[in-house]
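Could someone model magnesium ion with this protein?
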Amino acid sequence: MGRDLAKVLITEEELQGKIRELAARIDADYAGKDLLLVGVLKGAVMVMADIARALRLPVQMDWMAVSSYGAGTKSSGVVRVLKDLDTDIAGRHVLVVEDIIDSGLTLSWLLQNLKSRDPASVEVCALLRKPEAVKVPIDVRYVGFDIPNEFVIGYGLDYAERYRNLPFIGTLAPHVYGGEGD
Ligand code: PRP
Ligand code: MN
Ligand code: MG
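Reply:
Sure, complex below.
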């Protein structure tokens, strides 16, 4: 692993501090409400697990797995549902938990999909956002960190399914992925 990592962008301590901050805001905003957290597999696994444990509110947790459709481009905006929610979200307060908003295409599609199911509300909590990469502006209520347009790994984020288990966010050395952008 060592040589594949270019640098640590956000340390484990910084991540956990931000998680506590976001959880406190969510606790305050949803006090007295029945909240359903929806994690987007697989990237959101770490942030979902940590946010959920940092909350004081009792919440329910559900998961969706989605995949960009078509070869080549990472996010075509056409999304396939690999695993749908188990929960009927009609009338529910839903908070979508994501690891990163890159182009915004995945979340844009997902939000439209979820809103069509008549929830009481849908908001987004994204640990990371790349303002320079965004193609579709997303209204995000809770953002952890705005980061530069670099290929990031760790804390749920993968490169070719690896590095998800790093407890921090790092950037990948260009030699690993051929030096091209994300
Ligand atoms: C990554 C990331 C977000 C999405 C963001 O997921 O976890 O879900 O891409 O990209 P976008 O804003 O450009 O749409 P990915 O499709 O790699 O699946 P994964 O979570 O299983 O790694
Ligand atoms: Mn993802
Ligand atoms: Mg991925």
